[in-house]
Amino acid sequence: MDLSAFAALGTRLADQSHSIILEALSRPPPVEIKADGSPVTEVDKAVERALRDTIEREYPLHGIVGEEFGSVRRDADYVWVLDPIDGTKSFMSGLPTFATLIALAYRGTPVLGIMDSPATAQRWIGGDGIATRLNGTAVGPPRACADLTQALAHTSSPDYFAGATLQSLSRVKERARWLVYGAGCHACARLAGGFIDLAFETRCQVYDYLALAPILHYSGALVSDWRGNPLTLDSGAQFIACGDERVYTQALALLAT
Fold first, then answer.
1. Is the N end or the C end of the chain the one with fewer CB atoms within 10 Å?
2. For residue 14, what pLDDT band results from cuts at 50, 70 and 90?
């Protein structure tokens, strides 16, 4: 598959989001509370509007799935998946661990992923035929790690776990050498670069992880849901990423609910 034209558009979309967010970084944004209790700012909305407008103009038959404005043509062969600000709580707190996530799925399978971090001036891109790069420099392979007892693991927050998934978190925490919290999508990007061995999340939506899947896969990492299935447009609320198949196998066994 030749993704060059789509990658060029994805880069333009990332440029748009980058510019809008940078302009807003100098002041705390007003915050609204959505129906599900999560925060949203006008910047989230402005970014998604701009990206959707560009996609509609360039590829009017493509589908779009976005966090703030829902889905159109979700059953199209090509579907763009947008998280205008992944890590809105970090953004509204003035912390740098947020990014724009842009994915392109072909018949449900993610084939292109872009993660743009305006606060740190970093952009990751990976896809079918596009080896993962950070600011133009190749990323990967992830580091080898023979056993979970030697691993540095990450999840965003223990608050997202409850019931059976909280038990899963406890099992991983007991086994892993270290477990760190709070980096969100940045942890997955750092896993691709060999800084982290395991990242796992629950209570996610497709726009939270679909862009990360190609970035991770094309760096040499393993990424799937908690049952070991490939991530798609219809995957559920959980995902896992590992740099080493041995840790991946062990973590899947512990996360199984």
1. N
2. very high
Supply 185's token pair.
Answer: 């999508």
Q: Look at domain 4-138 and name its CATH class.
A: alpha beta
pLDDT of residue 43: 97
Q: Which residue has the tokens 């740099």?
A: 243
CB atoms inside a 10 Å sphere around CB 73: 15
Q: Which of 251, 127, 118, 135 is nearest to 193 (CA)?
A: 135
Identify the CA nearest to 241 among candidates 115, 106, 70, 91: 115
pLDDT tens, 155-177? Answer: 999 999 999 999 999 999 999 99
Q: For residues 243 and 221, what is the distance between their CA atoms, to the nearest angstrom?
A: 5
Count of all residues that appear for the chain in the document: 257
What CATH architecture is 148-255?
3-Layer(aba) Sandwich (3.40)
Cβ 210 vs Cβ 103: under 8 Å? yes
Please state, in angstroms and rounded to a whole number, the distance separating the CA atoms of residues 227 and 87.
25
pTM of the full structure: 0.97
C-alpha neighbours within 13 Å on the C-beta side of residue 5: 5
Closest CA to 85 of 123, 118, 129: 118
Q: How far apart are the C-alpha atoms of 31 and 16, rounded to whole Å? A: 22
Q: Provide the CB-side half-sphere exposure for 108 (13 A, CA).
A: 6
Q: How far is CA 70 from CA 41, 56, 67, 78, 141, in A?
A: 16, 14, 6, 16, 35
If DSSP codes are grouped into helix, strand and coil, which group holds residue 161? coil
Report helix, strand or coil for 12.
helix
